[in-house]
Amino acid sequence: MTDYFEVHERDGAARLAELRLADPVTTPAVVDDHLADAGSLWPTERDVPAGDESVLTVLPHRGLPGGTPEEVAEAFAVDYPDVDYPSAAVVSTATAEDHGADAYVLSEAAGLVGHAEAFVEAVIETREAIPDDTALMLSGVATPRNVATLVYAGVDLVDRDRAVVRGTQGRYLTTDDAYFLEDLDELPCSCPACRKPREEFDRQDCVDHNVNALEAELARVRRRIRDGRLRDYVEGQARQDQWLTATMRRLDQQYAYLERHTPIYRREEITAATEDTMRRVEIQRFAQRVTERYRPRFDEQPLVIVPCSARKPYSDSQSHEQYHRAIQFRGHMASMTSPIGVVPQELELTYPAQHYDSVVTGRWSANEIEFVADVLEGYLDGTDYPEVIVHVPGEGYREICERVEERLDQSFTYTVEDHPTTADSLANLAGALEGYPKYRKRERQHNTLRAVADYQFGAGAGDEIFGDTLTAEGTYPQLRAHGERTDGGQGEQLAALTQQYGVLGLTIAGARRWVDSDVSVKRVAIDDFVPHGSVLAPGVVDAADEIRVGDEVVIEGPSAFGVGRATMPGPAMDEATRGIACQVRHVEEQ
Amino acid sequence: MSTPTPEVYEQGKGMDAHNKVMREVRSRNDASYDPREPTRVWLDEDNTPDGVYQSLTIILNTGGCRWARAGGCTMCGYVAESVDGGSVAHEDLMAQIQYCLDHEDEEADEKAGLIKIYTSGSFLDEREVGAETRRAIAETFADRDRIVVESLPDFVDREKVAEFVDAGLETDIAVGLETATDRVRRDCVNKYFDFSDFEDAAAQAQAAGGGVKAYLLMKPPFLTESEAIEDMQRSVRKCADVEGCHTVSMNPCNVQRYTMVEELFHDQGYRPPWLWSVCEVLESTADEDVIVVSDPVGHGSDRGPHNCGECDDRAQRAIKDFDLRQDPSVFEQVTCDCAATWNAVVEREASYSLPLAR
Question: How far is B161 from chain A (nearest CA, A)?
Fold first, then answer.
């Protein structure tokens, strides 16, 4: 049972949590002052300490340092006692499993930092072997420069040891480097330790500064997790050391590990300022869902590919308004953008389509071109548009379209002379659409609701859940999905589109449709109670593995049927002993 | 609270695992050696109960340690230097002795008063060195003052020791005790005997008119710097209390090839002890009624005991100086900024943060 650690916020594999000691500690944090080491069993036998709630007690252990052969690790593995105070178990990748502790100290840490491949492998292996709602600690390794990446990988607790030792060695640690103190003619910091004349600043001051710098960086990291913006920070910060960049990239290759912990939507913007942004879960997930789940439902109109706009949603921008006036409902618009790829008009609200901001220079990198081309190819593959009209400027955009045109052996119609918003270009666009029928407003509304359902619940969900009696109420972007109109007026409400994230929130009726459909249901089975407001983790009997934070979930128990939104990934709901598993929107007794 | 069961580890299990791993690690070594040449031979100076002597040290190649063939000690790579086939004939061993005498003739002005013979195994194990060879060697060196031969405690018996005493030699048996803490010897070093076996061996040697010299190993794998220091301080004191044990040679662990320690070292899981730790133990046990010496091998290198790189030679000199004079004030002369780092490591390093500094 994990009684003394509770995860409050998740940002990818990083977590903002609480070490619930007598004086609680918000993590990630240095925990030197909150740790009581009961000692190593290598030199001597030890009794299980009395322990208390004021500290995290590291239970008597055998540290297994880097290079310990697996047979030796297993032969000397310690069976940890069950204790009723906050406790930490020391493990190696070979011995990590649920030992009933609140925290786990990975004893090969010293051999892992600096080696991206080994580090990523060990952290993932350990995190997957220990319960989700327990803390992972690495001792003796944290520095101001690496700690953001350590936390980003899934580390919760660190200590000051490395910062102190480096200080005694005359190394002045900052978030960007480990300077030789003797080489610094001025100190690039104004923490209390550094507020003295340079010539009086000695190695003890250097120790103090290093610790200050580490703690300040951790405060920043906590802030970033709260804001859901740690990845944006790490994309920059990891550049300060090669192994950190390699770690971030290797984690991107561990898509499943990061994806599981990445919410379906967030409030905050994604800063697309590096090529690594393309590898982010949010971007990859969107591309995957657009190409695999979404399908265009406008079949009489041609596809019109337009460039993205800085203003989001795109339809609010001046340029898109101009395209719209030229198209006049005769074409299905999809925006091409780096780093998102392709955004069909129905998904322009859907996270992260209106939640990113990229650095625009007009110069596309080879990777961007390749990525967007792949998405466009995946998007077009299997569609049946009467024509593909390309209304994009020259640089990058056009190259991508030509590449895809060649790959799919199709012929696109190009309508831009020099710039998409010039009168000539817009006239070309209108001309190219001549003769195509207009789609109706209602058709657009239905297609939008169905497209979001496909994106959110799985391929075909828009038809499966809403059936062929769908009616739309409200005005875009505040749309609601209802069932068949009755004599008295509106049909039963099934779902509402949230303007801010472009996802659907279901009603009880909508949830029942989902449960009755062939679409895979994200179900949270609960105990025999009727939840109001929220479902706490201990009340969860079983949760689908595929549930992600932000996912719409069906909450079902012997006496309740409800619908709500997940605030933990499914596996965490199963494992956690504390915390809110999901928020309940509607519930019925049954 | 539930009943604590921190100690579920079974004695045999750990040793089986160590042995299995060590056999595998050692099997990667495919070098073989000429049975007519000793593994090594060198001249030095040594402190003994009768004062400082010129010494001739011989590492005899006897086919290696029997224990090492089962797997053996986690830090010991000497087995890697043994001959193919596992045993060396009497003639070959005597050829090795002749080789050493020739070396002494060439390099030294006069014959060394002290002869030290190690086998990386047990000189007194008759499967390594037969009775005939043992007696011939005793005879060969009968004109010297003092002899030290290496053996595991099992093979130390009064009669064998008496052969050397009767040849007129002050005789010491060098025993690789490694530590007086049975648990550390068993779990960290993977050596099978107990401290009581060492006490018995000392009694046997003493009964024959000889003595024992305990070899201690500072910082086997899995111990922190502070645990290693405490282990050595306790071990020196316990050895000093053993009748017949007049000298302790406390040697910092180094990283030898084809050993488990090397596996740890390679994956950044092991750092040899700081020379400061050696100084600390020598200084803090100087008042014990036993000669304590140390001969750090490979000092100043990553694979050997080392400080920061700036002060290693000075620390090593102080240690060698202490070996000959047993005067703890020699350590007052050595200072370096890196002592602060060592202090931080001693204070902070935990079993789960090994090693905290390189």
Answer: 33
